[in-house]
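FOLDING PROBLEM:
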Amino acid sequence: MVEKILIVSDSFKGSATSLEVGQAIARGIRSVDNSVELEVVAIADGGEGTVASIISSNGGKFVEMEVTGPMGKAVQSRYGIKDTSAYLEVAETSGLALLNSQDLQPRFASTYGLGEQILDAMSKGCTTLYIGLGGSATNDAGLGMARALGYRFLDSDKEEITNDVFGFETIESLDDKDVDPRLKELQIHVLTDVQNPLCGSNGASAIYGPQKGVLKEEIERFDSAILHLGKIMESYASKDILDVPGAGAAGGLGAGLLALTHAEINNGMDTMIEILKLEDKIKNADLVITGEGRIDAQTKNGKVPYGIAKVAKRFNKPVIAIVGSQSEDAHTLKQDGIDLILDIINEPMTLDSAFTKVCELLSITGIHAYNAWTLSEKHKRK
């Protein structure tokens, strides 16, 4: 009987995409056994690379369009469409990767471009959207997106408040008369592994603000500003949003989507497993190979290897994780279904060298993974 190996790894950020990682591992395995049946599935956990993984695995098409970037300049972006569903990711329109570190200005960074993509998807007949919230450069609680959709945020003089987060404290009301009516019929699934509320010591500004350029002494004011906006949106929507797990994702964009659209927050990895029909693929595999750039205790927080291993464990399938590096506590993931972790680094080298040789290193480690598995199978037969 032909052995089936499923390879489904996250990207190695900055060096190889999910698909490139999987293909490199597959090349290594084929170099020692060309008879094995290999399937490579590109994946992401709802962050950067989500759209590419869905379209490459499920089919559909990419839509290229110019949108307003996080700092107001036009940027090229893309999203995916299949049938009446569209797949978007915040990293394409408002992502940290679109800016240099010296250009980070979280006070003025906006999610407006995401709203433009939503409008475009609706104009193409899409009725269901999946939006990945990873990698944003913003802390505007979705106000920019809402403005693109037609919402107006007004102060006591009925003047519109725009992109200045500190100005959010003067918002008194929300006007929706210009909102695109198709929004009422649009179903949105928000993909995130973040469980943070909108505000507070575990909220968007305190936890994720610093990586976007929020200074330590500014955190309290950022938090106060989006708390005020959150209460305005909560009152408008007539439902609780401030403390919903995931409301603080993407600088509070989760809260904005919950309040101003028909959105629900879903676990990003669980949703990706469903979209890519991975449960059946794992069930039918003899070995599952997964991975990510660095594996550690944080992997349990909705990352790709953890999500894949969780499903594999239900079907009693062996799982090998191929990684760039691992922490001292990574071995604890064995109880979660990851049977073996293999680093790709096979000799002392610089980070630049590891990045340059990543595909070669992945292929070599793919061989090691396959040999380890066949050795285990031989032991079982004794």
Q: What stands out?
A: Residues 84 and 126 are 4 Å apart (CA to CA).
